[in-house]
Amino acid sequence: MSALASPTRFRASCPDCRATAELEARAFRLALGRTKERTFYSFTCPACGVAVRKPAGERIIDALTGAGVPTMRLHVGAR
Ligand SMILES: [Zn+2]
Prior knowledge:
Blueprint lengths: L8 E5 L6 E5 L4 E4 L7 E5 L6 E5 L2 H9 L4 E3 L6
């Protein structure tokens, strides 16, 4: 697949320093858990460097996966 001129960017706000940044899809990670509570996306804030983790709704999941964000499946084993 050939990349378009400008890569997809997403706005992300940092709860720590309150900066809003536009990050390329590759800056995000998506973790799919078995429940909504365990499904989240994460990125590193370019302003303060903190690792941000936020719950991901269906629309966010669609947008991120559609943009090629690496997806990590979380398998929660029964204990
Ligand atoms: Zn920040």
